[in-house]
């Protein structure tokens, strides 16, 4: 994909975020402040010091808004869903080179909350993806019992499972067994 490192990183973050949702199958994996803190550390979300129950509620709302973008049935619906999210997001572009990273752009204000941070940076990354005509890369796993989302970064847009080692492998084994029975 013709996207820079920051954008690829933000897309990976939004995928991780959406896949904590019970909407993708399983339990809510942002169940409390401890799991929210673990998410912030795992994704190296910068500038976040305190987290409150209010942050947890707001992040869950943003997460569902992103889920609607990923699961939109067509490109115009994805655009509508993303515009709805962006219109509620305070966006403040700012050049920075924190923590030893080279100069890059943040889209959240310096005093942004966690949900504002995620909505701005991930929202802008998805906006660029849609502008590049890459809407089709926003996918939901094809395994029958998995609704996790992913961004298909393969050259020929051929990826159908959220994870080739888990769902992909599981489905190939099932197909192999079905052929052997036939
Ligand atoms: Zn940064
Ligand atoms: Zn899957």
Automatic annotation (TrEMBL):
> Could you tell me which residue ranges the Zinc finger CGNR domain spans?
137-180
Per the UniProt record, one Pfam family is zf-CGNR
Q: Tell me the superkingdom of the source.
A: Bacteria
Q: Which InterPro entries match?
A: ABATE (IPR010852), ABATE_dom_sf (IPR023286), Znf_CGNR (IPR021005)
Q: What is this protein called?
A: CGNR zinc finger domain-containing protein
């Amino acid at each position: 994909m013709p996207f820079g490192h920051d954008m690829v990183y933000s897309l990976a973050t939004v995928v991780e975020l959406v896949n904590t949702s019970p909407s993708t199958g399983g339990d809510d994996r942002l169940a409390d402040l401890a799991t929210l803190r673990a998410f912030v550390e795992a994704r190296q979300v910068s500038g976040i010091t305190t987290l409150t129950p209010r942050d947890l509620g707001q992040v869950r709302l943003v997460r569902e808004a992103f889920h609607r973008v990923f699961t939109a049935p067509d490109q115009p619906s994805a655009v509508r869903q993303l515009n709805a999210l962006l219109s509620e997001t305070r966006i403040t572009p700012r050049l920075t080179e924190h923590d030893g990273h080279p100069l890059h752009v943040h889209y959240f204000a310096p005093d942004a909350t966690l949900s504002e941070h995620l909505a701005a940076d991930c929202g802008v990354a998805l906006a660029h993806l849609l502008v590049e005509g890459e809407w089709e890369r926003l996918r939901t796993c094809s395994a029958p019992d998995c609704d996790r989302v992913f961004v298909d970064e393969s050259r020929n847009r051929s990826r159908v499972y959220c994870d080739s080692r888990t769902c992909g492998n599981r489905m190939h084994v099932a197909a192999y067994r079905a052929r052997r029975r036939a």
